[in-house]
Design brief:
alpha/beta; 8-stranded mixed β-sheet; 182 residues; single chain
Length: 182
């Protein structure tokens, strides 16, 4: 199964960075609500950690961004485009998602950066933007390249992972309307 190979490559990369994680297997989940229902089996540390929704977006100039926000945050794409220095934002196609990050809709995860390290394709840059409020929670929980498991990682290790993939993430303060504040 391809997701097993991808997951193994992810975990090998995390291990090469001396990053420890914990992974819980569950039935595939496709929505935040389904993920919340599956969370019960993660134990008490899951209640206080950071659970995300991950949006793969693009503008009309075909610039792409991976936005990682708290699962309860509403995102105003119109306001966010200007804050990110991009044009009008929309969700990228499933084909572009697969091509750039190697995952399919329902499995969007920042761990997919392991599939697209910066040196591989400098002509099609990818902006990585993180919700500052999410980054204050611990641990953080993300799918390990497929939606039938959830992996816990410390916020500081998550940042090391992103940097290890060659990205310098942008931290965003989002206001109550899901717009980038400040």
């Amino acid at each position: 199964m391809e997701s097993d190979k991808s997951e193994a490559r992810l975990f090998d990369f995390l291990e090469s960075l001396s990053i420890k994680t914990y992974t819980h297997r569950h039935a595939p989940v496709f929505t935040v609500a389904e993920a919340q229902a599956a969370r019960i089996a993660l134990g008490e540390h899951a209640e206080h950690g950071g659970h995300s929704k991950n949006l793969f977006i693009r503008d009309k100039k075909k610039r792409s961004a991976l936005l990682v926000v708290d699962e309860d945050t509403r995102v105003n794409l119109k306001a966010l485009g200007s804050k990110l220095g991009m044009g009008r934002l929309s969700f990228a196609s499933p084909e572009r998602l697969l091509d750039m990050l190697g995952v399919t809709p329902g499995s969007v995860t920042p761990f997919a950066l392991v599939n697209r390290q910066v040196a591989e394709d400098a002509e099609a840059p990818l902006l990585v933007a993180l919700d500052a409020a999410l980054m204050k929670k611990a641990p953080l929980f993300f799918h390990p390249l497929h939606n039938a498991a959830t992996t816990a990682i410390a916020p500081e290790d998550f940042l090391r992972f992103i940097e290890g993939c060659g990205y310098s993430p942008l931290l965003l303060d989002l206001d109550e309307n899901g717009s980038a504040a400040g």
